[in-house]
Design a protein that fits this description.
The chain is mostly helical. The protein is 75% helix and 0% strand.
Length: 71
């Protein structure tokens, strides 16, 4: 007999919870990495090297114009 509705979720709860834990771990690691990358780019953006801030500003503007799905 093929289970229907919520019974499928209940029977597969171990796999579902394992996937949820993996998703949370990936999200946490991604948030930390994004924060560190953002801090590094910010430090370079406010640096006194004349060429760096305009180049980074151009790169940031370019990234803002590209749809997220292309990444």
């Amino acid at each position: 007999m093929i289970p229907h509705g919520i019974e499928v979720l209940w029977e597969q709860r171990d796999a579902l919870l394992a996937g949820f834990a993996t998703t949370l771990a990936i999200a946490a690691v991604s948030a930390v990495c994004a924060g560190l990358l953002g801090l590094a780019l910010f430090a370079l953006l406010i640096s006194r090297i004349r060429v760096l801030p305009p180049a980074l500003a151009w790169l940031i503007d370019l990234m803002r114009c590209v749809p997220f799905m292309l990444f």
